[in-house]
Automatic annotation (TrEMBL):
GO terms for molecular function: trace-amine receptor activity. Keywords: Cell membrane, G-protein coupled receptor, Membrane, Receptor, Transducer, Transmembrane, Transmembrane helix. It is a multi-pass membrane protein. Belongs to the G-protein coupled receptor 1 family. It comes from Poecilia formosa. InterPro entries: GPCR_Rhodpsn (IPR000276), GPCR_Rhodpsn_7TM (IPR017452), TAAR (IPR050569). Pfam families: 7tm_1 (PF00001). Residues 51-304 form the G-protein coupled receptors family 1 profile domain. GO terms for cellular component: plasma membrane. The keyword Secreted does not apply. This is Trace amine-associated receptor 8a-like. The lineage of its organism: Eukaryota, Metazoa, Chordata, Craniata, Vertebrata.
Amino acid sequence: HRRTVPSVMEEDELCFPQFTNLSCRKLNRSQFEKVLVSFMLCFISVITVSLNLLVIISISHFRQLHTSTNLVLLSLAVSDFSVGFLILFQLMLIDGCWYLNDTMCVLYYILDVVVTSASVGNMVLVSIDRYVAICDPLHYSLKVTLKRARVCISLCWICSLSYVIIALRTNFKQPGRFNSCFGECVINVGFTEQVADLFVTFIIPVTVIIVLYVRVFLVAAAQVQAMRSHIAAVTHQHSRKIIVKDSEMKAAKILGVVVVAFLICLCPYFCVTLVGQDTLLNTLSSAFVICLFYFNSCLNPLIYAFFYPWFRNSIKYIISLQILKPGSCDANIL
């Protein structure tokens, strides 16, 4: 079982006082803890939603950014943007009670798993894109087109939705039937589904990402080193090729930082899931792991802001409202 609300409570205060014998009990938290956790969740939620919204607007509006790589980043921003809203649900769980109905409980889990799975899928697509760009640059424009990128992104979201429908199918018939008391949100996941979830959303994607990026950096480093050793003898045309290769290497490094941050933030969460989330849900380490999991969604736009000049330029256009001017979509922001 996966639980968002623990079944063992320590405080006498009930989630639903009108149901004395049926209600779950609230968590024993001090007022300071409640205020602190509420502030942190609100802060992360606002930052995540705001920054990813800037990424979505930037890539969607400016035509110069309509590339296959940025299209995947746009899909990733959409999933992170959704995570920012899902964080608000955690505000209800500060006292350990689920105040919405059982249908909303199932819907929350569906959105959570779909968005998480889509994020992992987008990371795999980013890795594949960089792999082709670095390891087969001559055929990159032929193999990676906007149309193919759209198809892959669509399949990523469709597969994520299909996956969660199959994994949580037993919870659709009668939402809330696995709850032991009122104020609890329990989703039943069988052992087979848990093993499949581990492989589909963690082991296989992470293995693919790591293998591709190791290959990318080895090839990119070898290419750049080989061309720089002959930089004094090459022509101006070849020099331009070196610049292109350097830009590809820079892009690979930036997206590599995104992937590394992704792994650092998500690996602890899946490790806790492996051990057993129910047993660790009330501990401080579990709270840290969950916060780290959500923090990854606001970390990606920060990485773009530090490394991508186009993102900083597009933010200036958006904040100064120049984006509302006619023809702003054709502005040179690169």
